[in-house]
Amino acid sequence: xxxxxxxxxxxxxxxxxxxxxxxxxxxxxxxxxxxxxxxxxxxxxxxxxxxxxxxxxxxxxxxxxxxxxxxxxxxxxxxxxxxxxxxxxxxxxxxxxxxxxxxxxxxxxxxxxxxxxxxxxxxxxxxxxxxxxxxxxxxxxxxxxxxxxxxxxxxxxxxxxxxxxxxxxxxxxxxxxxxxxxxxxxxxxxxxxxxxxxxxxxxxxxxxxxxxxxxxxxxxxxxxxxxxxxxxxxxxxxxxxxxxxxxxxxxxxxxxxxxxxxxxxxxxxx
Length: 270
Ligand SMILES: NC(=O)c1ccc[n+]([C@@H]2O[C@H](COP(=O)([O-])OP(=O)(O)OC[C@H]3O[C@@H](n4cnc5c(N)ncnc54)[C@H](O)[C@@H]3O)[C@@H](O)[C@H]2O)c1
Known about the structure:
single chain, alpha/beta, Rossmann fold, 7-stranded parallel beta sheet, 10 helices, binds nicotinamide-adenine-dinucleotide
């Protein structure tokens, strides 16, 4: 069967595709014949239809990008994200979750019947159950400005800013699934284990590689950007047409080993 993934001629929007997992996903989407609209603060190298310089921590910048996007969209890929450190806590929350949600909510009415949303969370957000009350309190602040004001007040997150941003993303994804199912639109996220991208280069300036290694799967290595970008493309494809509301660990069994008590639960995953 040709076009088995169903992207031929489809309009897709992707953030964070200047490098890393998003770049791998954007390259594949272009190869699959999608019309790719890219939002990034950096330079996008994939042969996309449109690249819009966008700062995901700036509401006006996101709104300006939204104005340039097509009126009907088949799929949205939320890939932009930054580590903490070196990025300050408020910026991490704004880029990794508040801006992501602002963009997603604004584009929801444009997502076509049969369309889908896939975002990149992290194994660092997998302890969301133990912080659910706080996450829900934050999600209840529905607007970008309300979320930003809460963050700037220095309120307690119950986790480090990066972990909290990914907990919020996982709970948001699961919370939206039922509402979107009524419109035949799917929403999922992936939770990658450590991956060799510029994000990791930034993180390992503050945390040496030996500190990250215990969070790797038993195959002992960091994933490649393609090993994350490809499952993301699969999740938004027609081959995953009945899959929604999932946070999929893409970690070569790391979370499974924790669930089975076969290795230390360093992140308090429940
Ligand atoms: N690398 C890892 O080990 C790892 C593990 C789990 C989850 N993640 C998540 O994966 C996602 C992709 O990261 P990556 O590892 O490919 O890193 P990366 O640094 O290669 O990619 C991040 C992308 O986000 C863009 N970006 C950064 N700040 C932005 C802003 N303010 N506005 C718009 N775009 C911005 C960057 O230009 C880049 O294209 C992130 O959400 C990250 O949190 C990464």
